[in-house]
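Subject: for your reference before the review

Hello V.,

The reviewers asked for a structural picture of the protein, and I figured it would be easier to keep everything in one thread rather than splitting it across files. Below is the amino acid sequence we used in the manuscript, unchanged from the supplementary table.
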Amino acid sequence: MLAAGWAGAFPLVSGLGPHRSWGLCAAAGYLAAAVAVLVLPRRWARAGSVAVALLGAVLVPLLVLLVGGQGQSEVAVIERSGELLLRHGTPYLAEPRTVAEYTPYLPGMALFGLPRALFGTDGWPARVAGDARLWCAAAFLGCLAAAAPPTRRRPGRPGRPGRHSASAALRATVTASVTGALPAALPMAALVASPVVALPLCVSGVDLPLTGLCVLALALAGRARPVAAGWALALACALKWTAWPAVAVVVALLAATTGRRAALRAAVTAVAGTAALVLPSALRSPGPLLQQVFAFPTGRGDLPTPAGSPLPGRLLADLGPVGWYAAVALLLLAGAAVARSLVSRPPRDTRAAADRLALGLALAFLLAPAGRFGYLALPALLLLLPRLAHLPHLPLLSRPRRLPLLPRAHAPRPHAPRPRTPRPHAPQVVPAP
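And here is what came back from the structure prediction:
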């Protein structure tokens, strides 16, 4: 009911058409999910309500927005950057005149706009297939699936061998896999159906790939796979520079659990991969990249940024140049405090690393000179996803190793005393006098 009320408020208070459309559909979907809990049998109530919420808050509004061609301005920005990258080798316009012509993302984000450049806009099938939101959502869900630990379930022992033993074993294996996967996937499906994920997935989808890649990097670091974690970080850092703090957190986690050599391998992989993805466009248009990616989001660009939520950093920046520098100073102090905590008390498991990254990003979004309330969804997802994806609370290599047990000295078994048989006494010989 809370989700229904929150979604129902968007048609009343929001000035954005995609938000209002999502709110109408999602409010009806959440109400239907609440009714499903009361109507369905207790055994199926939870799964049924989640399925109804997914249908009403994600699938239906997403289809309506896709067919109608509605979406936030970020969707058009990503799709235009993909076309520019394909034609000119850079996703940035040389002389943008309006805010809509700015591309405040790193070159990696343009990859989600390439399907639009390939499929075009002729007909609604092409519009739907090339929409950047679908590819952002696919990347997000794929990262979550890869971050979840593999299930190790052994099928039951087959019965006596017979003509149908192979098919029976196959059915038993499939049934066990499905019944075992459904309870584990249900909390994740509920999170996707919640407004925290459903709203950005339907209207923009920009931050979802970044969130999924950060969670995947933390999960891979928790499994002692530094190179794979470094590549996940490289992909995330090539999307938005707000993912750069994740490199420090992953390096601290690996150094505390796996060793400094593994941490160095992850850092080198992340830096080299990010450079390989960003440098071609940066060398081709360095000025537009600095102006649109770094100056514009922080409020120092030629045009004012639309990110004007009344957060503490924004309120300070509105006081003038002194307030802007004060907000930047507070932001740097908060970053230094989080970095010091990574050195003095490094995270030793995946969830602790995700919590530390969420704390750092939340402080950055609150103290930045320009920001939105929607940015705080990223720290919230970093807090929830590692727990709902059943990521290990303690990595395997961070557990204290048990010393091998010394062989016990086997004491001789006590034997029952043998009964002594009395010996026959020899006749006593008395000497003659």
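For the response letter, the relevant points are probably these. The first helix runs from residue 2 to 8. Residues 153-182, 395-411 have pLDDT under 50 and may be disordered.

Happy to draft the paragraph if you're swamped.

O.
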